[in-house]
Amino acid sequence: MTATKRVPLLLAVGALPALLAACERPAGLQVEQLGPSGAGMEQVLNPRVQPVEAPIPPTLVLPAQEGEPLARDVYQNVQVLGDLPVSQFNALMTNITNWVSPAKAGDPNSGCNYCHNPANMASEEKYTYAVARSMINMTRTINQDWQSHVKATGVTCWTCHRGQPVPANVWVEAAPPRSRGLLQTQGRQNMPMASVAWATLPYDPFTPYLAGAENIRVVSQRIHRSPDHVRSIQATEATYGLMMHMSDALGVNCTYCHNSRNFGSWYTSREQRVGSWYAIRMVRESNNTYITPLVRAGVIPARGMDGGARLGPMGDALKINCATCHNGQAKPMGGVSMIKDVPALAAHPPGYVSAARAAAAVAAG
What we know:
Layout: H1 3-20, E1 30-33, E2 42-45, H2 71-74, H3 86-100, H4 127-145, H5 147-150, H6 157-161, H7 206-211, H8 233-250, H9 271-296, H10 322-326, H11 355-363
Antiparallel strand pairs: 1-2
Helix pairs in contact: 4-9
């Protein structure tokens, strides 16, 4: 073989590992059939690429003592959780510290100091004090009002934060820059983006659907255009972008919720599709009622105490989406429930009306 012929052959052999890098080894894959045979309703799980979960820290549980005073009668400026006995209040504060900002050597703003001035624990000089109050209310609202999605498993601060002041998976609005070269378009339409699982779809499915209330349904019930169902190609692509995010965030494919023979049919869909319907509305409420108002009130600064960004380039807050809780798993933390050890986060005290429910009541007249 001449040297001239040998070079292309060597290049081809050298490129083979790169081509195979995108392929999965079939050995060890786990397949679960979710629907009728022949409908393609299967979930394929690759244990080799499953997200590594941080170990859940032990939860401090202290039973209340008979005749023990309430936190609001002992401490100053306790606007949330004041209904708890002092011992349970202190235990919950310890747990929240470990869930969100555990103490770190050499970091004066970690541990209790992340929210509090140690010289005056009632002071609100640190913005995180007000943020924590809103997040506690949000957690209680999710557990009380959104059992249609979280069921009895519930959520705690750890579900999203996993020991970090800012959850690993958040989103912000962003002005899309123009792509370069031959694929020069607006909206990164022809560029694979992580927000839509590297699909070439509109890169921001969150602003219209997880902050706004755009209509997500794009499947018509008729074969022709009808006055009650007029959806543009752009809206359809944006919907698929949201579906790609949800699939990636839960580590599942489309048939986890949908029946492959008729994606639009609710009658033949799995019950998980109903749970997802509620999940979208739960996330909207959380973003619009408990997170975004903190920016409008000037509570959240552009930079945190660690120097990290707390606002996006458009000035909006770091908001939540499906990946914030799920982190690549169909059930957050594999379905482990922590709420049984912290029942104070399971619901608001009697007589409390959440901000979202109060607003809904006003809107209804």
